[in-house]
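Troubleshooting log. The previous run stalled partway through. Resubmitting the same two chains, unchanged.
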Amino acid sequence: MSTQENTAQVKRPWRLSLDSWAVVVALLAALLIRAGVFKHIPW
Amino acid sequence: MADAVVIPQVQPMQPALRFLRIVPGVLLLAAIGYSGKLLEQNVGAYAKAHHWVFPNIEYVLWAIVLGLLISNTIGVPEIFRSGVATYEFWLKAGIVLLGSRFLLGDILKLGGVSLLLVAIEITGAIAFMTLLGRLFKLKPKLTTLLAVGSAVCGVSAIIATKGAIDADDEDSSFSIAAILALGAFALFTFPLIGHYLHLGDRAYGIWAGLAVDNTAEATAAGALYSDAAGKLAVLVKSTRNAMIGFVVLAYAIYWASQGQAKAVGNKAAFLWQKFPKFVLGFLLISVLATYQFFNKEQVGALANLSRWAFLLTFAGVGLRTNFRDMRKQGLRPFAVGAIGEVVIAIFTLGLVVGAEKLFGF
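Second attempt completed without errors. Output:
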């Protein structure tokens, strides 16, 4: 058997992409604003 | 006995440690962004009080310029780098939140027009960049990376394509450097050209979204012109980003057919993996806003939160742009990118002016 065939498949732990994290955080912030936790965000 | 393959055990970094590592850089982004905001408010007032003639410079430009100054003089110290790299995260979160300022009807109307323009832009840009790469005798995979970078969405598209077509690290570094340098150039020239040509906010925003490659630079180039132009630039750029999977898939299939890349297995899974998820988040928030899930004050709060996220992004754009590093990457790929970008900018400007006459947006 060759070394290539024996090369172990290293399983990467499942992780959210940067894109998905940005969506999750933004949606969470939107829900907090909707729930009235943050009533006013100044600019 | 089979050969033993020893896989080094790499200890993953603890989440708390990872979080702590980004804190200094995020604070630096916030400090630069907020300084930009203070400069916008105070420099104009100071000049007016002293009867000086001074143009009103928006926080967007101040934040970018401050970042550029630090990056190109003292440099960004190691301790801040992980946090500064989060500017992409803030950009995407900001775009999702910006969805609250779009009603679904507007997105469908403008999205339909921009989808058509984006399709023409992507086809034209890929064809032209491929021709240019051949004329300049660039390596075929380097040409592919430059074509994808200028046609679709800059650095993200180059990174996605690099993995799919097994391109060299050196080729992707060349392409990324060229696209970043040209993006920085576009950031300052597009608003000047727009004002010179007296483009309306809509026409300019669509043009910036079509022609500026990186999402951060397209957002900044739009915001530098006006708030309305910034919104449009983000919408059109997001439409372009949504095409990334299809373009990368087409290139992956092409290079696999040439025996120079791995074959693509499940095409639907491939498309989903490459699809920018923030576009879905943007649409979701827009649907919620359209059906009045948020009241007027809440929409205002979401829009302001989006501005704060963009503030960090613009500081990051300046901080990660280092002209010395870009010069090291060589002239030929840069020349191909530069010629391509100028032609694409003129081509897309013609498209936008034509579409404005045709559709009257």
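Takeaways: Chain A touches chain B at residues 1-3, 6-8, 10, 13, 17-23, 25-27, 29-30, 33-34, 38-43 (CB under 8 Å). Residues 18-34 of chain A form the longest helix (17 residues).
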